[in-house]
Structures are given as structure tokens and as C-alpha cells.
């Protein structure tokens, strides 16, 4: 069963690679080259950590460290893009409404947004490959998540629409920073739940989950529904966007459950020890 799942997602990844290379080489879409650059960058980071880290024999540690790098760089780039656009539009009397107006999110592209989205596509392709090669997934959900993002992101990049919408979905990477930081910390052996560092980390982890992930994705979904009549009739943009956000919101529910369980385990070490002893 597991082998069949891996083969299916590897096949979809190969099809995706062929599609991207076709657009770059035969359709002369050189603006898509940052996808390749993103893949090479994160694969190179993987190689450096794997060869020079004391935990190089732990593929999960290497993968999570690269994921932390991606969430950090993506969060910084998204914040820069939003701040830059805010400054550009400060002459407007109603910056928020104009910045998040339908045509701004669907038709226009903020400076740097296209490249940032391409670069993240390269990461998700790298991460999908790394998880498949080293069998790092415990369930297909993370593979489905990456496939969903690759399909939605690349279709938007091919048609050059809804780029700004997709940039907003990546605000959730702010939460991913603390999600990956916790995993790296624990794999490095720092598990003292009474330390102030761990307590602050959990506050930031849970707060960013509610605000940057759940809140952001719910608001985007609401915005899509409210502006549904403004999308092109018969176009694929709205159905694809709603399908993608439905998938993200569902995955957020599962992630929230897992996060709550992890919090209870880490903050109640005596209960965890008792349960382990009883088992």
C-alpha cells in the first residue's frame, strides 16, 4: 500500500516537472526559471546540512531544517512584499480596501510576488521528492498538501492570475517557522518543557496558528465567496481557488488537532510518562 502511494505521488511529481520544463523551454516562459532556482537552492541546503551537520544521518532532521529555512525566507519575503505594496499605495485614502480589491488580487501582481511564488514552488517540489526518497511521511496528507499547492500554484503562474491571492495564502508560513522550530529543537534534544524558551515558543506557535494560518485562510475563503460574481464566467480560477482553500482549511483542522495533542504531551510530561509506562 505504502509503495503504491509513493509511486503515485512520484509519478505526479515527474509529470509536474515535465510540464514546468515544457513551459520554460518550448513556450519561452523564462519568468518561470525561479522555480528551478528554488528547487536547486533548497536541494543544495539539504546537501550542506546532510554533509556538515552532526545529525546528518537523520533524514527527518535534515528535511525539517530545510523546511525551517523555507518558512523563514518565505515569511520574510511575503512581509516585504506586503510592506512594499502598502508603502506604494499610501497615497490612497483607503489603502486596505484598494490593496485587497478584487482586481488587485486576481489580475495585478505585486512587485516580487511572481518570483516569490515560483521560488516556493521549487521548494515544494524539492520537499515532495525528499519525503518520497527517504519515506519521511507517516500519512499521505502531507503529500496531498504539496501536490495541491503545486497544481494550484503552477496553474496560476502559467496563466499569470490570482498571484496576489496565492501570496496571501503563504502568510501561513509565519506559523510554519515555529512549527518546524519545535521539531528541530526536539530532535536536537532540547525538550525541557519548563524552560521559558519552550513556553514562549508554544505561545508564538499557537498564536501564529490561529492568526496566520487559520484566520488568514478563512478570510481568504470568505473573500473568494463574496467576490465570486466578479470572477470571469466559466473560468477555472474561482472553482480551483475554492477547491484549494477547502483543502487547506480541512488540513488546518487536522493540523490543529495534532498541534493540541502535541501541546498536551509536552506540557504534561508526567502524564506522558504514565501513559507510556501503562502501555
Counted up, domains total: 1
Structural class of the secondary elements? mainly alpha
Structural shape:
globular
Which stretches are poorly predicted, pLDDT < 50 over at least 5 residues?
274-279
Mean pLDDT: 92
- Figure out the total of helices: 12
Radius of gyration: 20 Å
DSSP summary, beta strand count: 0
Distance between the termini: 28 Å
**Proportion of strand residues:** under 5%
Helical residues, percent: over 70%
How can the largest sheet be summarized? none
Quick take:
The chain is mainly alpha-helical and 279 residues long.
What does this structure look like?
It is found in: Membrane. It holds the Pfam family TRAM_LAG1_CLN8. InterPro entries: TLC-dom, TLCD. It is a multi-pass membrane protein. One of its GO terms (cellular component) is plasma membrane. This protein is an all-alpha fold. The protein has one domain. The protein is 78% helix and 0% strand. It is built from twelve helices and no strands. Helix 2 crosses helix 6, helix 3 packs antiparallel against helix 6 and helix 7 runs antiparallel to helix 11. The chain is globular, with a radius of gyration of 20 Å. 30% of the residues are buried.
Question: Topology of this protein?
Answer:
Blueprint: H1 2-25, H2 33-52, H3 59-88, H4 95-99, H5 102-106, H6 113-133, H7 141-159, H8 163-169, H9 173-187, H10 196-226, H11 237-267, H12 269-278
Helix pairs in contact: 1-6, 1-7, 2-3, 2-6, 3-6, 3-9, 6-7, 6-8, 7-11, 9-10, 10-11
